[in-house]
Amino acid sequence: MLLAHHTALRIGRVLVFVLLGGVTMAHGQVQLGLPHAPSSRSDFSAASVAPIAFDAPTASPGMPTAQVQLGAPRRMTRPPAEPTGGIPDALVRQRLGASVMASTASNPRTQRLPRVHSSSGLTAPKALNSPSIGTVLRSVSGAEATELPIMPHRGAACSNAAWPGDFGPTPIPPGSVYYDPLAQQLPYDGKSEVPTQRPLIEWGVPFYAGGLLPRSDPWLGETNLSQPAFYVYGDYRIGAAAGRNAIGRTDNVAQRLNLDLDLRITATERFHAFVGPFNRAAQFSQARFVDGSVEFDPNFNLNPVTAFLEGDAGAILGGLHGTPSPFELPFTAGLVPLLFQNGIWMEDAVTGAAVALPAQNSPLLDWSNYDITGFAIVDQLNSPVFGRDQHAGQALGVAAFIEAYSGYIEAGYAYVHDRVGLGRSYHNLTASYTRRYFDRVSNSVRVIVNAGQDLPSDQRTADGALLLVENSFVTATPLTFVPYLNFFAGWDRPQSVARAGVSGEILRNVGLHFDPDGLNGHPTLDGSANNTAGGVIGVDLLGDALDRQLIIELAYLAAHGSDVGRIARGDQMGVAARYQFPISHATLLRFDAMYGARRNDTDIYGTRMEFRWKF
Questions:
Q1: pLDDT for 361-418, tens place per residue?
Q2: How many CB atoms lie within 10 A of CB 64?
Q3: pTM of the predicted structure, to 2 decimals
Q4: How far is the C-alpha of 172 from the C-alpha of 155, rounded, in Å?
Q5: How far is CA 489 from CA 115, 249, 326, 465, in A?
Q6: Which residues pair with 595 in a beta bridge?
Q7: 609/10 Cα distance (integer angstroms)
Q8: Span 105-124, mean pLDDT?
Q9: I want to staple 241 with a disulfide (CB 3.0 to 4.6 A). Which of 237, 418, 520, 558 is the partner?
């Protein structure tokens, strides 16, 4: 009889807790909170919520009780309707037990009991005198009640002291015990404007804009709306250098202006052009210091380096028929910049066209995502294969980008045609695989193979192979301390499909020792991979706020095979460094220094300083 009475009493108390709303239990503790969204009767301001602590009955006299906390707002943006009446004490005693009344009566902070609206049930009390730094939990054993302080109410982390003996399978994460409205508002109210550099010319829809965009025009179709805009942006560079490269002295002050002209028509179609007014290929406007005299070498050139149209054939077709895009088929045509495999396999602006098949997958091959790009080059192909004649070569090829087998795969094939008929046509193949091993080493293995030239071996301009292995290491501070180690080995005369003069040689991405500055003629080691092998080891250091960079690097290059036609006359080694930091959000300063010792040749060395302004 006594057991049945206790069981009925427990069930009744649990039902009351559920009616109060939002009950959650965690190892003997129950939190009951009001909904954060405004109710139909009143709008609560979530600026501050103070919990009320109630005691729940225990299963046995020796077991601590569960704790119930009712979150109540301290202020309301609109006063609620006046209640029709309070809960009679007898009803509360019957539903929650006498221990609740005794506990709340003994604590002046929780003397106000909930009141009832006629239609909405239990609500929060009108006023609370709760502590600002937290609340209390009471552990009741029999008739005794003791107060235990817990974590502060606002933004406090959950500590083991707050939840003693918590050995549950799901630990309570810090900060999840209480709702902090100020922390919830921070992602929205705590923002500040980030300074950005505006384009030099910004006509039509702004490049970066807040608020609503103006209404678009349907002249290309209701499903391919147009919103024309024209921008001119780019950067200005000026640098001073002193030293000696493979050709001779490099004492000069040079400047370079890069202008991108972008006419946007729709979300997918645009005309784009690039102009370098102060240079002709790799020759920049400069003042040279020669034997105590100053020689000015102006280079003014408004011929476009690139000029092309790009868009999506599916979006255009859908707009013309008034339907959503039936497929995705990006394309480009004109004087097009093509860059594959970080510029190693190709980096040039060529006359031609390209089309891509994006975002595909193959369950059969276990490829989660892949893109395929086909390209055709009809003119202005720059390559050492054809010397200085940029009209002698044509190419037709395909490149694939595949996410599969726990890594990233790039592959490509191109047939390069000698339109002059001197027997220099050849096949160019490439493949690479990139992935991270043991969560510590990011590795890329890349191969380029040239074959098929119908010339005597000593007259071939494209044959052989290049193996390139790049490694960076994950440290305890992976964003600010990045060691790297790269190797290469070249046989005969491996070539990229196309490479502009300002893009350097095929080993450009191996390290600082092979990367041209594109302005002053800063010295580099032999980057042709023509019967050479070697590597670089270095460390990339960035500031804690990623606001500055220091790179220090050592390099070694060993010549091998026949020296007939080989560019490197012997082994080479060097040390190089780079330091750069921003002056503002649009300007930076860069400093470079290197020294290269070359066997059977003159040593090279140089320092330079560059100022760059982006707009």
A1: 999 999 999 999 999 999 999 999 999 899 999 999 999 999 999 999 999 999 999 9
A2: 19
A3: 0.70
A4: 15
A5: 82, 30, 47, 8
A6: 575, 605
A7: 80
A8: 38
A9: 520
Closest alpha carbon to 9 in 97, 90, 103: 97
Between strands 29-33 and 67-73, the pairing is parallel
**End-to-end CA distance of the chain, in Å?**
86
CA–CA separation, 448 and 429 (whole Å): 6
Which CA distances in Å does 262 have to 210, 230, 338, 375? 21, 6, 17, 22
CA 317, 323, 327, 331 dihedral sign is: positive
Inter-residue contact 407 to 432 (CB < 8 Å): no
SS3 string, 8-46, reads: HHHHHHHHHHHHHCCEEECCCEEEEECCCCCCCCCCECC
Question: How many whole angstroms from its chain centre is CA 201?
Answer: 27
Cα separation, 535 vs 405, in Å, equals 28
Exposure on the CB side of residue 91, measured as CA atoms within 13 A: 9
130 pLDDT more than 70:
no
Query: Is residue 350 a contact partner of residue 338, using CB atoms and an 8 Å limit?
Result: yes
How many Cβ atoms from other residues are within 10 Å of residue 11's Cβ? 9
pLDDT confidence tier of residue 611, bands split at 50, 70 and 90:
very high
Tell me which residue of 254, 255, 231 sits closest to 242, measured CA to CA: 254
- Short-list 273, 249, 232, 257, CA closest to 518: 257
Residues near 129 by beta carbon (within 8 Å), at least 6 away in sequence: 108, 109
The predicted model gives 441-445 an average pLDDT of 97
Instruction: Provide the pLDDT for residue 5.
Output: 47
Alpha-carbon separation of residue 113 from 17, 88, 105, 587 (angstroms): 14, 10, 10, 64
Confidence grade of residue 175 (pLDDT, cut at 50, 70, 90): low
Distances (CA, A) of 427 to 430, 453, 529: 10, 8, 18
Structural contact between residues 141 and 61, judged by C-beta atoms closer than 8 angstroms:
yes
Is the distance from CB of 572 to CB of 560 less than 8 angstroms?
A: no
